[in-house]
Amino acid sequence: MFYQGQFGSRFNSQSSGWTKGESQRRKSSPGQRGFTLIEIMVVVAIIAILGAAVVPLIMDRPEQARRVKAEQDIASIASALELYRLDNFNYPSTDQGLEALVEKPTGDPEPANWNASGYLQKLPKDPWGRDYIYMSPGEAGAFDIISLARDGQEGGTDYDADLTN
Predict the structure, then answer these.
(1) pLDDT digits (tens, 9 = 90+) for 14-42
(2) What are the DSSP calls for 48-114, one per residue?
(3) CA-to-CA distance for 56 and 116, rounded, in angstroms?
(4) CA pair distance 36, 48, nearest whole angstrom
(5) Dist. CA 16–CA 142, nearest whole Å
(6) Looking at residue 77, what is its pLDDT?
(7) What's CA 55's distance to the chain center, in Å?
(8) Given this model, what pLDDT does residue 39 score?
């Protein structure tokens, strides 16, 4: 007894498999073959050439990535400071510092409604491993948050330029 499936294959249900004509058609034809070693080597060489062209472009980006990270940290800290001000009616003083966002500060001005869970889980360090500088009141606004960037000194140009809110 033969079974004709939806794709037209003939399966012999009484024997153990495909009919003789079907099994012969399933074998690969002599024109089919795999990749040769030379073809694989050519593809690997092309990938290596492309990689050699792209890697220098990527390697120039770490300092740019650090600056973007610092800008994001500063924006996050500034948002936490705004929440602090909404709850407590003022920003933490320079002496209280950014630690007031993690632990309830002491001193003046005393926080009236400090959030028991804090405003940040922990204070981030800038991408160069240093603490962010906080001043309230700031020179440019109600507060300043500053990263001294790559060189760790005030001022600078390019990747050494300070980052601030």
Answers:
(1) 555 555 555 555 555 566 677 788 888 88
(2) HHHHHHHHHHHHT-HHHHHHHHHHHHHHHHHHHHHHHHHHHSSPPPTTT-GGGGTS---SSSPPSS-
(3) 48
(4) 19
(5) 85
(6) 94
(7) 19
(8) 82
127: left (phi over 0), alpha (psi -120 to 50) or beta: alpha
Sheet holding 2-4, edge to edge: 2-4, 10-12, 17-18
Residues 89/112, Cβ–Cβ less than 8 Å: yes
Contacts for 86-91 with beta carbons within 8 Å, 24 or more apart?
87/111, 87/112, 87/113, 87/114, 87/115, 88/112, 88/113, 88/114, 91/136, 91/142, 91/143
- Residue 120 reports pLDDT greater than 70: yes
**Could you tell me how far CA 163 lies from the centroid of its own chain?**
20
Cα separation of 99 and 114, whole Å?
A: 13
Burial of residue 151, with CB atoms counted within 10 A of its CB: 0-12 exposed, 13-18 middle, 19 or more buried: middle
Residue 162 burial (CB count, 10 A): 15
Polymer length of the chain? 165
Q: How many CB atoms lie within 10 A of CB 147?
A: 24
